[in-house]
Amino acid sequence: MNFIGYRSDALGAAVELVNEVSASRVEEPEVDEESPDRMRTVLVANGYLAGGAPASVEPALRAWARRLRTVFDVSDVEEAAVAVNALLADVRVEPHLSNHDGQGFHLHYSPPEADVVDRLRASTAFALAMLVSEYGIDRHGRCAAEGCMKVFADTSRNAARRYCSPACANRSAVAAHRARARAAGTRSR
Questions:
Q1: Mean pLDDT, consecutive 10-residue segments, the chain of 189 residues?
Q2: 159: Cβ contacts below 8 Å, ≥ 6 apart
Q3: Which of 24, 28, 49, 140 is deepest in the core (most CB within 10 A)?
Q4: pTM > 0.85
């Protein structure tokens, strides 16, 4: 589902940025300065042209990811609106049509002179605003798997997603099955 009509997946980028920071917090408390630019990889994977990005976008995108997480951590729609409005207040939104790099005309939300970080900030904030305005908090949140710190945004038709990935869903299903089997074995003795 492309909420904003841009050639990138802003909602997917928001989720991946948050999950990259969540995963590194659990697996690697300190980000090695020698490590590859993982946040730039998220940009490229979600259709952002990162060619004009500064030497490292890591610090700015990690800080933005922590801000995006506030939308996923809420428990009601009022809190989600406050979190989204705080994001929107911190980005410069200046919609315009652009046809750069051989692409047809498409909508940009940040000013023409904005760098890739500012474009990503504006489009991810706007994508989360569209998600919350359309679906409240029913389509996004924290993974329901025990111990998982990642988030998800559900763009499926049935809106039944509760996990960040099939792996977490499968682990949870296996754990629930084993718990039921243990309980049934205890009752039959």
A1: 58 94 59 62 82 74 96 96 97 87 82 88 94 92 93 86 91 88 75
A2: 135, 138, 139
A3: 140
A4: no
